[in-house]
Specification:
The complex is a heterodimer of chains A (238) and B (105).
Chain A lengths: L1 E5 L3 H11 L6 E6 L2 H10 L5 E5 L7 H7 L5 E6 L5 H4 L5 E6 L4 H32 L2 E6 L2 E6 L3 E7 L2 E6 L3 E4 L3 H7 L5 E5 L2 E4 L3 E5 L2 E4 L2 E4 L5 H7 L4
Parallel strand pairs in A: 1-2, 1-3, 3-4, 4-5
Antiparallel strand pairs in A: 6-7, 8-9, 8-12, 9-10, 11-12, 13-14, 14-15
Chain B lengths: L6 H7 L3 H27 L3 H17 L3 H15 L6 H17 L1
The chains are: A alpha/beta (238), B mainly alpha (105).
Chain lengths: 238, 105
Amino acid sequence: MNCIIIDDEETARIIIKQLCLNIPSLEVVADFSNAMQAIKYLNNSTKVDLIFLDIHMPDFTGFDFIQTLKNPPKIVLTTSDSKYAIQAFEYSCIIDYLVKPIALPRFKKAIKKAQTEVSKENLAENAKNIKELNTVNNLYINIDRRLIKLDISSIYLIEAKGDYILVKTETKNYTVHSTLKKIEEKLPKKLFLKIHRSYIINVTKIIDIEDNSVLIKKEVIPVSRSNRPVLMKRLNLL
Amino acid sequence: MELPNLSYIEELSGGDKIFQDKLINIIKKEYPVEKAVYIENITMLNFQEAANNVHKLKHKISILGLKKSYEIANNFEKELKEYSLNGQDAFDIILQTITHFLKTI
């Protein structure tokens, strides 16, 4: 599991890092002295499974931080106070609550909980993806009153063209009277991503990415600044 | 009066002296800063800020094995939130004890 630590106190960060050394499956990928830095990191980084989060920080509390996250990873709260425990469990992403100073046996217990939760989530996501891939292999498009069956995996690009969309496949291109929004809803999210207001791409067909563009087949497609972090998250980055 | 100790740090380190020294040095670096901010706020009667400072100092108190002192600090933090200075003398003694202890390690 990849984890990050957010605590304004360096002593606390060092202690949690030391505790993490006892769990081989846990890797501390970053630590932050304030929540704002962590938000920036999470918006631009690869997958984080777990956050150790201090509640009591100046300016921006742990709870403020959680509220800024659209899809928060699992969170273990760390605090010198037990009084926030009830409030903590109002958030489904919070899986445990550790009172400082954190002892190793209690820490291990929290990690076990986290591992169970993360595994459950991964299993559910995998099952969903498999189901999505198995059930939605084809898409029918209406061209001149004919319904033409397309193999979804053969689509590599969809481009908005006014009231029409241009669907590009390995063998042929089709102009369809529809919108990007409508076709996006019909496509498996695992394969397709909107990277610009005028483009949806099949992420498995990407050849390379440079600055704010992706190369698909022989076409260079722009990536809007707001969509770039989502695209980066989808990649299996080394 | 209970005295600070390094039991927690030793247990946490699993005998790793390098880690122990590293953590002690960070505490030695952070503690005077946190204490100075607390003194400034308590002198200016900035109750809420001082309560936040006491909260932060509680972690150092607990790391150094001061269980009773932790409770004193906890109560003083609550008093400060109620705009009361009850418990300040006892808390200040804890700070002095830690200051002295950090000079000996």
